[in-house]
TrEMBL record:
Name of this chain's protein: ABC transporter substrate-binding protein
InterPro entries cross-referenced by the UniProt entry: ABC_Transporter_SBP, ABC_transptr_periplasmic_BD
Taxonomic placement: Bacteria, Pseudomonadati, Pseudomonadota, Gammaproteobacteria, Chromatiales
Originating species: Spiribacter insolitus
Fe/B12 periplasmic-binding domain segment(s): 43-294
Highest taxon listed in the record's lineage: Bacteria
Length: 294
């Protein structure tokens, strides 16, 4: 162990003692940083779309060994281009075991059997809950930084996120009322990530008036009676399904004073990452249009 008395000669003057003390503190901090770096996992595998993106943002060079195949899907992933640089996995225990990871990161709804098997094989697994608010974006970034030994990088991302949030969000005096409308007539309330995004963009969510805090079914008839000022729908996935057809119903354009705006891009709000800022900016621009035409 390096001690002050062992490295600083007794004949040094007062100023020299102060300088030497500062140097020793810096040496100690350097040793501490090296210890943290050496204990950080070196082969990390993510098997969930949302943890994929958090890990890609936070991980150091060559630290992330694999991400899920879904991370390359441009419909679902806001970082599909970045994901091309990483080998992919399909969430199967056998393939993940062969990668020889020292940490696996999964989501709460990742395959439970796979997670259980990896733990039985002695592979550390960290499980992330899905984000249900903008605060969860911050929390999950910081947690990812701790897991990967990249706390400084995570803090930088959170600070940048907060700066941008301050620029984009506000508290309008008379916010317009919007209804979120998704496949099968599903809506989201304020206790959800997309609900928090809508609030940050300056809208009141009609789900609150209807007593829906989380997610729930909103019959088309009830939506018509509620008369929101705007209906916002999600973007459609590939192909066609009857569940998505309701988002194209012509009554959505007639029920709301300002009609329906279709195509809230799913990849921008499905996961709690800094990329939700794009959704806030997009919806906030809609509010600007509506307020100007009231």
């Amino acid at each position: 162990m390096v001690t002050f008395s062992s490295v600083v000669p007794l004949w040094l003057g007062r100023q020299d003692w102060i300088l030497a003390g500062v140097m020793i503190v810096l040496v100690a901090l350097s040793h501490q940083a090296s210890a943290v770096a050496s204990s950080a996992p070196q082969r990390v595998v993510s098997m969930n779309l949302c943890t994929d993106q958090l890990a890609m943002l936070v991980a150091g060079e060559s630290q992330l060994a694999s991400v899920s195949a879904l991370s390359r899907d441009p419909i679902s992933s806001a970082m599909a281009d970045e994901a091309q640089a990483y080998p992919v996995n399909h969430g199967r225990a056998e393939e993940i075991h062969l990668i020889d990871p020292d940490l696996v990161i999964a989501g709460r709804f990742s395959a439970g059997v796979t997670v259980a098997m990896l733990k039985r094989l002695g592979i550390p697994v960290a499980v992330f809950e899905p984000a249900t608010s903008l605060d969860d974006v911050r929390r999950n970034l910081l947690r990812m930084g701790e897991l990967l030994g990249r706390t400084e990088r995570a803090r930088e991302l959170v600070e940048a996120f907060d700066r941008r949030m301050t620029m984009l969000s506000g508290e309008p005096l008379d916010p317009p009322e919007a209804a979120l409308y998704f496949p099968n007539g599903y809506t989201r309330g304020e206790d959800t990530l997309v609900g928090d995004i809508v609030r940050a963009a300056g809208f009141n969510n009609i789900a609150s008036r209807l007593g829906i805090a989380g997610g729930g079914h909103l019959p088309l008839e009830q939506l018509v009676v509620a008369e929101p000022e705007l209906v916002i729908t999600g973007s459609r996935n590939r192909g066609y399904s009857r569940s998505q057809a309701i988002m194209q119903h012509p009554v959505l354009d007639e029920v709301a004073r300002f009609g329906a705006r279709r195509g809230l891009v799913n990849r921008e709000w499905v996961c709690g990452t800094p990329r939700v800022l794009a959704a806030i900016e997009r919806i906030g621009a809609l509010r600007g249009e509506l307020v100007g035409s009231r």
